[in-house]
């Protein structure tokens, strides 16, 4: 979560608000997929588009920071939708 939060904070995209919170990360047992639940103040649709477009860069940053045999594919979800 920390590695991903830092990587998102470094994105230079106008659709990404200054404060984005990674609420939860759920990883499958084979580390093939990571569901990342994020929240932010403001327009979440723009944020979700920006995260989807930066997915490769974010995965590389996670792979560089967190030493795993296999780096999971990141899927981004709005944390507020999960709670409702």
From TrEMBL:
Keyword Cell membrane: no
The keyword Plastid is assigned to this record: no
Protein's GO biological process: rRNA processing
Stored InterPro entries: KH_dom-like_a/b (IPR015946), RbfA (IPR000238), RbfA_dom_sf (IPR023799)
Superkingdom of origin: Bacteria
Protein name, as recorded: Ribosome-binding factor A
An annotated GO cellular component: cytosol
GO molecular function, one term: ribosomal small subunit binding
Keywords for this protein: Ribosome biogenesis
One matching Pfam family: RBFA
Gene3D superfamilies (UniProt xref): 3.30.300.20
């Amino acid at each position: 979560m920390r590695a991903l939060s830092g990587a998102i904070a470094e994105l230079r995209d106008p659709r990404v608000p200054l404060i984005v919170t990674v609420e939860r990360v759920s990883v499958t047992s084979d580390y093939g997929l990571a569901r990342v639940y994020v929240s932010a103040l403001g327009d979440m649709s723009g944020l979700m588009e920006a995260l989807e477009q930066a997915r490769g860069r974010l995965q590389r940053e996670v792979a560089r920071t967190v030493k795993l045999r296999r780096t999971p594919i990141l899927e981004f979800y709005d944390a507020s939708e999960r709670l409702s």
